[in-house]
Design brief:
The structure holds 2 protein chains of 2 kinds. Chain A has helices spanning 10-19, 26-38, 52-62, 78-81, 87-96, 98-106, 111-125, 135-141, 158-170, 201-205, 217-227, 233-248, 257-269, 277-287, 291-301, and strands at 42-45, 66-71, 83-85, 131-133, 146-151, 172-175, 179-182, 188-193, 208-211. Chain A is of the alpha/beta class. In chain B, strands 3-2-1-4-5-6 form a 6-stranded mixed sheet. Classes of the chains: A alpha/beta, B alpha/beta.
């Protein structure tokens, strides 16, 4: 694996990201660079599907670091996030090592002596061998520098957030049986949140804050051109403009960048040449996932004010 | 520069952005490592380290240019430079007829000189600007200063001057050009004033600390809140909600060890040869289900809104909240809260139910509820009534309320009126009271948050 790469300026980081096919604006690259410089976790907030997770992946690739991902969900706790003792393995080992244990203990005369001897062997069973490393511990113990992605932190419970604070503030974990384990390399930490609930102030205080919004038409067009190069430039622009139009409607779920990309791919696969009504009708469900949204969008896009209902003119609803 | 950043932080705080000492330190670290040469980079650095809420970003964007615009003078052109001596003479001649101060201003515009520090200081004193700590006065004060500098008269004089020059036989195009440039200079002066006023106010804000205002607001009765204060309280509600949520979450976690679940324990321990290594417990279903019925007539709006905001902000600690609002009929309002901030939702609801006078009818609303939504109340549900129980002498429909209350796990009433007033006039509170399990008098935010805390903790 290639050596870890640190960037010397925000522009360099921006270029590094674009090599990984991630188009970052100045704000994103500056704040990311800042996070690297002052060693703070970065909290990225924004609507679903604007590329928050993608950002972490691109960063990992650009810095040649391993990406360790912790996906949060309701009910996530320390045993799933940090570490767990592997009971089954411990049990299996005690079974298999029974003879050896017997041997060790047989020469002892008193019960106390036997217990002492057993206690001496204790750390065999509570060693790293039986420690099941979950993402957080993995990131701390990793021999090589890593990028730690804590995805959708707003889905985890409030108490998990509190626990996370301890880990993020000094990157060390105390395992009672082993003592304190501290980080070999400080990982670059990126937290993402879809803002479904308010995060605690304590957590926010410890992070840099980055709000990623939907991109502008030109930015999104760049992304589409980069990721779906087969789509003709004219159609790509029309498609992106339509998506932006959809976002301006009051929908339950606005189409995200990833959905734009899916749609662009669909248009390529279907060999579409222009966005006429029939193409839209068949493919709009790639963008809009709620039936109500779909109906609404169709109503607003195919309104009777269009003069030629069959061939549908883009300009008519652009202004 | 350091001093400037500290002032900026103080001004942000004065505008309700919560910034800790650690975050200020982060900002300094960030600025140290990225430098201040690139203005955008500097702005991103401060924003990422100081502002952690998306809704606070507009405040940041508004204040930032006021603090870090730099004091460079406004861009003005100097039309006098390329005047021919003849033209200059003509102008000097024409200027003579104006009074002193107008002529001075016209000359200023002609030479493209910005207002200097002295002049600005004089204006500041005239306007008493050091007392002002609210950016909404920026436009007003700017206009006042323009008046003090007689901008309108100057504008008029400018027209006259141009007419005169034309009469004196100066080239038409040249006159027009001159006029355009002078008008542009006047605009630049206006911008300078506006920016100066903004900066001054921002500085005042940072010096003016009002830490205890919030405490005061907590204990102010809802009825006496101004729109502005209500706005501040709305922001506070999210904070209270965060605190409440942590408490509730901790309690749920501690309470998780319910009774031993034998079936699940046996099943899950088969992999250990049925040695019970992992114990499984039944989850105690402690998350409450809530049906809340809010009076949103004019007098009850503030408390209803704050209550709804609070409930929907701690949604993840409640298994289900069904919200209803009434004035003279009941309306199911939970759908409004999907994917919308509570205050926006409440605003949308209020638009749907405009309040009139003297049309509150709790009795009819209860009957309405009974007929259409009774199935939402079951033995796990906590019923919360928010309102003053003033019924306009309509039938209180006690039987209906008794029925709804008995179906629920418990019925709770939040009444913002002072206790001695209950039962006076058209208040039916004493009649409803015996049918409720608990009654809270909540007339301010601290009482409201305490009530919600207690009813969710079940104490």
């Amino acid at each position: 694996m290639a050596v870890d790469r640190t960037f010397r300026s925000a522009e360099e980081l921006k270029e590094g990201l674009s090599e990984q096919q991630y188009i970052a604006n100045d704000e994103i690259s500056t704040i990311l660079y800042l996070a690297q410089q002052i060693g703070k976790p970065l909290l990225a907030e924004g609507p679903a599907g604007v590329g928050k997770t993608e950002l972490a992946k691109a960063l990992a690739a650009a810095t040649c670091r391993d990406l360790i991902r912790l996906q949060c969900y309701e009910g996530l706790d320390e045993t799933k996030a940090l570490y767990e003792w592997e009971y089954a393995k411990q049990l299996l080992y005690t079974q298999l090592l029974r003879d050896k244990l017997q041997e060790t203990l047989s020469s002892s005369e008193t019960l106390k002596d036997a217990a002492d001897r057993l206690a001496n062997e204790e750390d065999v069973f509570f060693s790293m061998r039986f420690l099941l490393q979950r993402p957080l511990l993995k990131a701390i113990l990793s021999e090589t520098p890593t990028v730690l992605l804590i995805d959708e932190i707003d889905r985890a419970d409030a108490e998990f957030e509190a626990f996370l604070l301890e880990v993020l503030s000094d990157f060390q974990v105390s395992v009672p049986e082993l003592g304190t384990l501290s980080a070999v390399h400080r990982p670059l930490v990126i937290l993402t949140s879809n803002n479904t609930r308010e995060l605690s102030e304590a957590l926010k205080r410890r992070c840099l804050y980055l709000f990623i919004d939907y991109p502008t038409i030109d930015q999104e067009l760049n992304v589409v051109r980069l990721k779906v190069p087969d789509l003709s430039p004219k159609l790509a622009r029309q498609a992106v403009e339509l998506v932006h139009k959809l976002r301006s409607f009051d929908l339950r779920k606005s189409p995200s960048i990833s959905e734009t990309l899916d749609w662009a791919k669909a248009l390529v696969t279907l060999n579409a040449h222009n966005l006429d009504q029939s193409t839209l009708e068949t493919t709009l469900s790639v963008l809009l996932k709620h039936e109500a949204d779909l109906q609404k969008a169709k109503r607003m896009l195919f309104s009777p004010t269009n003069k030629r209902p069959g061939d549908y003119d883009m300009r008519s609803w652009q202004n | 520069m350091d001093q400037r950043i500290v002032q900026f932080v103080a001004a942000l705080r004065a505008n309700g952005v919560r910034i800790s000492l650690a975050e200020t330190a982060d900002a300094f670290h960030g600025v140290e490592s990225l430098g201040i040469s690139d203005r955008d980079m500097f702005r991103y650095t401060l924003r990422a380290t100081l502002v952690k809420e998306n809704k606070d970003q507009p405040i940041f964007e508004k204040l930032f240019p006021l603090f870090f615009q730099g004091d460079e003078p406004p861009r003005m052109t100097n039309p006098e430079q390329d005047l021919t001596p003849e033209e200059a003479d003509k102008i000097a001649e024409a200027l003579k007829q104006f009074t002193d101060d107008i002529r001075k201003m016209l000359e200023k515009l002609m030479q493209g000189r910005p207002l200097n520090q002295n002049e600005l200081a004089q204006l500041d004193q005239m306007m008493n600007i050091n007392e002002v700590t609210d950016l909404r006065y920026q436009n007003y004060l700017t206009r006042q200063m323009e008046q003090a500098l007689k901008f309108r008269q100057v504008q008029q004089a400018l027209e006259e001057l141009m007419a005169m020059l034309r009469q004196m036989g100066m080239d038409k195009q040249r006159v027009e050009q001159l006029q355009k440039m002078m008008e542009a200079n006047q605009q630049a002066l206006k911008d300078q004033l506006s920016r100066h006023v903004g900066q001054k106010i921002a500085e005042n804000m940072s010096e003016h600390q009002h830490a205890d205002r919030m405490d005061d607001l907590y204990n102010r009765p809802f009825a006496s809140l101004s729109d502005d204060e209500m706005h501040q309280l709305r922001r506070e509600v999210t904070r209270i909600a965060a605190v409440l949520r942590t408490r509730l979450a901790l309690r749920l976690k501690r309470a998780k060890t319910g009774r031993l679940d034998v079936k699940s324990t046996l099943r899950n321990n088969q992999k250990y040869g049925s040695v019970p290594l992992e114990l499984h417990h039944r989850d105690q279903k402690l998350k409450p289900k809530i049906v809340v019925i809010c009076d949103i007539s004019t007098s009850m709006r503030q408390i209803s809104e704050l209550m709804l905001s609070l409930l929907f902000a701690i949604q993840d600690q409640i298994s289900k909240t069904q919200a209803f609002a009434f004035i003279d009929h009941i309306k199911y309002i939970s759908p409004y809260f999907e994917g919308q901030q509570p205050q926006d939702a409440v605003r949308a609801i209020l638009q749907q139910m405009p309040s009139g006078y003297y049309n509150t009818d709790l009795g009819a609303s209860l009957v309405d509820f009974d007929e259409r939504y009774l199935d939402m109340v079951d033995s796990h549900t906590t019923l919360i009534m928010v309102g003053d129980a003033r019924n306009n002498y309509n039938d209180p429909r006690l039987e209906t309320f008794r029925l709804i209350a008995r179906r629920s796990r418990s019925a709770i009433w939040l009444n913002p009126e002072a206790i001695p007033l209950w039962g006076t006039g058209d208040s039916d509170m004493p009649k409803y009271a015996p049918l409720c399990n608990r009654i809270f008098q909540v007339s301010n935010l601290s009482q409201l948050s305490e009530a919600v805390d207690r009813l969710l903790l079940g104490r």
